[in-house]
Amino acid sequence: MRRLPRLFLPQLLTLMFFALVGVVGCASKPPTPPAATAAVVPAIAIDGPLGRPTAPGQLAPIYPVMLGIDVLEQQNFALLQGKRVGLLTHSAGVNRKGESTMQVLQRAPGVKLVSLFGMEHGLRGEIPAERTYPDYVDKQSGLKVRSLYNGKSRKPTKAQLSDLDVVVVDLQDIGTRSYTFISAMRLVMEGCFEQGKEVVVLDRPNPLGGLKVDGPLLDPQWKSYVGAFPTPYVHGLTIGELARWAKDQPGILEVPDAVRQRGKLTVVPMRGWMRFMRWPDTGLKWVPTSPYIQDYAAVMGYPMTGLGCYLGGFSHGVGSQYPFRGVSHNTVKIDVIERELQALRLPGLRFHRVSVANKKGASRIGLFVEVIDWDEWRPTELSFYLMKLGCKLESKNPYAAAPQGQANGFLRHMGSTTFFEALKRDGARVDVDTYIRTWQAQAQAYQQKVRQYWLY
């Protein structure tokens, strides 16, 4: 379905180096781990896509990625010894063996796990998007879950933090600005810094890798829970790197500057992860992060179709299948949609029909969006052409006709007032190409600015 990068000798040697010596960092000066804890990765011959041996009988590839929780455990939980700990996590917060971080910290010697924090979708991803919920007791761990999605405050309160010394954050992000887990982390940093509590972020891979950056920057007036960082829509950072940036750069955290400077942040980096790696390259099993992000296909699809299906008649998915990877329309025939999308010749993409039967046995037909060239693919491009097509194919311009509340919601996600006004004004004549070129130039400048916070 997609081309994976070839693992050339320099990359392999670099990967072996990191696995041998490890990389351990924090917000200030990263210490070097003792040699006794180093992981060794045997050399393997790979000629072809990463992770695919060239001939039968060769050794299977060894995936060396250790997550932040794995590194913390290898260091005997030294950062948390003797401390009262709160944990912000979810069902995808697991170590590389698939064991939940909750379980790992509960059995950790010298660590007292006091409580859990839950955000959008709940602790185990069972709650639909945007549905609030109160505090509750998690049956599996027996610990109280303090809700950060209770309809009152998304920032931990003084009372919620009063019996803690440190809050650990272990969340699997998907690399896209409007996915709210990075927002939850930012608000935890704010609350903890205000109350003099330490924050430890256990780093995890950006599943889209650390090199793809795409889409419009967020206009400052649209900063919100679905736009917590001033990044392009596809941000190209790990959650730990975002935390380091927020700690260092004035204006990201909404706290007084003196509070930000006094705040204590430690990021526990991964070992073995490199920026060119996408999720399949890590060898780790994907654990669903929310009801519609059940697999890596949906992770890739989220920036491709989510914005383009926010207003108007386009829908992501086909029936109940292919979330964020299927495209259909409520009123326009599939023949027309297919012809229009094929005519765009979008770099790196291909479309083919899929059919899904509903509960009554009737078929719903849509188009599956296939990424055939990763290097050429621009993650958000399709969404903006779906917006243009909506203006062309629907009887009314859905952006000009949108009620103010829906328009504001769209802008909080998409981020660019200028492009929204162009959609309203120009409709099907909007010059998407020019905007994409502008955003690409802005993305390159952004990437240079945040390189100082890269850990890998």
Key attributes of the depicted protein:
single chain; 456 residues; alpha/beta; Rossmann fold; Aspartate Aminotransferase, domain 1; 4-stranded antiparallel sheet; globular; disordered N terminus
What can you see in these coordinates?
- The protein is α/β, with parallel strands linked by helices and about 450 residues long.
- It folds into two domains: about 10-290, Rossmann fold, CATH 3.40.50.12170; about 295-450, Aspartate Aminotransferase, domain 1 (Alpha-Beta Complex), CATH 3.90.1150.
- The protein has helices spanning about 10-20, 70-75, 100-105, 160, 180-195, 240-250, 255-260, 280, 295-305, 335-345, 380-395, 405-415, 415-425, 430-450; strands at about 85-90, 110-120, 135, 145, 165-170, 200, 215, 230-235, 265-270, 315, 325-330, 350-355, 365-370.
- β12 (about 350-355) and β13 (about 365-370) form a beta hairpin.
- It is globular, with a radius of gyration of 22 Å.
- Mean pLDDT is about 90; it is low at about 1-60.
